[in-house]
# Entry
Amino acid sequence: MRAKSNLIRIKGIAPLAVVLAFGAVYFNLSYEQHLKKWLEQKATLAYGAAVDIDKLNVDLLNGQAHLQKIQITNPSSPLKNLFEIDKISLHFSVKELLKKKLVIHSVNVSGITSGSLRVNSGVIDDMLEESEEHPVLWQKTDTGVFANLRNQVKQGPLKYLSQITTGAYTLTKMPNLKKSLNSLKYLETLNQSFEKTHRDWTSKVSLLPTPTQLNAWQGDVATWGENPREIASTIDNEKRKHLAIQLREKYETITNELASAQKELTHIKNQMDGINQFLAEDIETLKKELNLPTQANDDLSFSLFGIHAISFLEKLSYWSDTFRHHGTVTFSTPQLEIVRTTNSKQIEYHFLNKKTEPSFYIGEVKLISGSDASNGLVGEFKNFTLFPHFYNYVSQASVRGNITGSNWEGIKLEVQLASENELPLEKVSFSVDSFPLEDFVIRSTSDFDIKISSGTAKLGIEAVFKGPRLDVTGIFETMGTKFSVKSQFSPFEELLDSLTRSRTILITKATAQGEKNSLQLTIESDFGKQLAKNIHETFIKQLAQIDDTLKTHVLDSLFPLRQTINEKIQDAENISLAQMRSTLNELESMMIYTKKYDPQAAKFKHRYSQAEKNHQTL
Amino acid sequence: MFAIRLLYRFIALFQTHANHHGISLGICAGMALGLSPQNSLHFWLLIALCFLIRLNLAATLISWGMFWLVAMLGKPAFFVVGDFLLNKKSLISLWNWLYELPFFPYTNFYVPNILGQMFFAAVIFFPLHIFSLKAARYLEPAVYHWWRTTKLYTLYRGYKPYAR
# Structure
């Protein structure tokens, strides 16, 4: 007993208690803030664009948490939210949390809206650097099935549409694309040709009389008044005649050069205006280089619809794969299993026990779009866990409701993720109580087709994925007649084909083909046609916006060279041509006195004046 | 004045229990701290214990730094040991029991290299205690003499009156 009392530092108990008390108070007051920040950071990093939570309340004693106003940025359009969720309420097990297990009994997600505007941009600065090392959710894909399709979409038009319209993408790509700009090449050629012209003018500067020469001539001419032609000697008059002819010839040469220079300048100015035609060509070239759509060749329905469909399938496939193959089993009995998992940081072991709860489990998630469940769609997810194969959980996802604004009623979509003999087994069932038909054709391999111009129908289909194969069975009912649908096909190849070739047809028409071509259904709907029309209109608007943005970027790229050429033109006008004009004026003022010695001088003055008049007119 | 007194008392803590037993326990506690990752529960329990048990904190600090380095350098070896233990069939029921205990999973014992470090710390605790007890007896006069010649000690002596 004595040894024990000696071992404990009695004086240390009080300070430790104080520190613990302070810690507890601080934790109680601020852990929600810290947890909120931590959640935002983790979600943002995993997702690849900003995820913001307005408020987080956690009641640890009762195992409840409430998150309010959650904004999930659209990575392709950072000023908009992909989703905004009004409220998420969680009910979790405190007992399991003490064992470092997250067992969530229920999650209620309400007030889901999409496409709302953000106050701040949702771009994260180091997103690209991060994404190279650890691909974010937005870029995560499975490795095989969608590889070709994904590459096509990556090359595809809409990938960079939002960045193009905001200018972010073009600015980074522009330096590489500058080389292919025809307008830039044109300006460079123009600049070179102007340089050559300017060099020619410079070489002809020797034609201009030097200031000394001019002064000497002016001095000579000034003395002529004191000694008029009548009283001057014959030798003097000969000299004067010689000077008069020399001045007239100089005048003639400079006038011709000035006219030629003015013509060159006018030509260059006209050529500068000719750049507009190259601008239009460059915009088309850039669109091609950036893989942007063109009205003539592309159908945006592929981009708008296909990219989202593929993105969704990729993520579903990725998560389905992760969900099933989470770690390696190192030990297994019917009651106990040890799984070795590897995450980005470390390797760890999980001890799975049938009698206890999994380390991560979500019992039920309920999603309600809009303000209440009666209006719009309701989604439900059940039984999500990290090791479903061991706990025999069958995960389910279902969506039901009505599409407001259309006549589609009683829609129900259910997805089940299970396994059979350790092979993935996904079941999808889809049913609609009532939907409109227009120009509906039932084609049969027998002698007749059935065409329904207007009516309603009911559909119920169940599809089972068995590896790469899809088995479809179901019932289609219209006008009091029931048709059974049975089909077997490889959906991925066919989907790829549909998305790359059929494009709009995928929206406006739905086609189902029965086994051995015994039955073919083709459905066209007003809803699909209207959707396609809206997509086309959006496409045209966005194309115009892209053209404007690209034009601005091209003009920005040309600005330094245009500025240089304009400065050179100004210099030519203000220095070289002005020098010629000034010399001509000087010569002209002398020729007033010398013209009596050379009668031809008058007509050259006329030429100079005519050239000036022409220049001013131009 | 209060802050200076508090600081003094904190520094004084490191001077206390400078007997051979206190120094030896301090080295062992530092070893356990150095081999425990900071995001684990037992690390913070050990910190609290260091202030509750009569041991020399200066020795703890020095030992902590040294064994932290050992933990860093010996990571692959600790991983092999931990992986072996986690896969040992005779121990599976123990791990399973610990996995389902409240609080214990927060020690992250199911991560191989952390378990390896914990195992190593447990194995060498008593041998290290005996070794450091003998080493303290042998080295204590020289270290004590060196500590008295340091500027930090002079500074500490200078502030001593304020601590009353």
Observations:
- The longest strand of chain A covers residues 423-444.
- The radius of gyration of chain A is 41 Å.
- The longest helix of chain A spans residues 526-594.
